[in-house]
Amino acid sequence: MKVTITNAAKDKFLQYEVPKGAGYRLSTIFSGGCSYVYNFDLAVDFPNEEDTKFEDNGLTIYLDPLTIKHINEDLKFDYVQGKGFRIIGPSEIYSYHLEVKQKANK
User: Fold this and answer.
1) Backbone dihedral region for residue 15 (phi beyond 0: left; psi -120 to 50: alpha; all else: beta)
2) What one-character DSSP code corresponds to residue 58?
3) 81 and 89 Cβ atoms separated by less than 8 Å
4) Domain at 3-102, CATH homologous superfamily
5) Predicted structure pTM score
6) Tens place of pLDDT for every residue, the chain, 106 residues?
7) Where are the domains of the chain?
8) Are 31 and 37 in contact (CB under 8 A)?
């Protein structure tokens, strides 16, 4: 699995304050009863022990095991002004309108 960060995404990511040892973390949140719905959570956060670290374009992205298992293909992080971050894979667009949450404190 490979993670790519476009220049537009990098420029936007660099506007956030990231404490030392933290990075950007993508996790999957499943919900539902008879059928599952999934959403993505993108945050400035410290990595968990089981996260996998990806580096591209001078930035670090951590993915949790559930996200890697669920997506299981290369990802591209992009940013569109007024629409937020989007996550794109070869077979589908996983998410639009993602905003970065600040979970890591100094």
Assistant:
1) alpha
2) T
3) no
4) HesB-like domain (2.60.300.12)
5) 0.84
6) 999 999 999 999 999 999 999 999 999 887 766 767 778 889 999 999 999 999 999 999 999 998 998 888 899 999 999 999 999 988 877 777 778 888 866 5
7) 3-102
8) yes
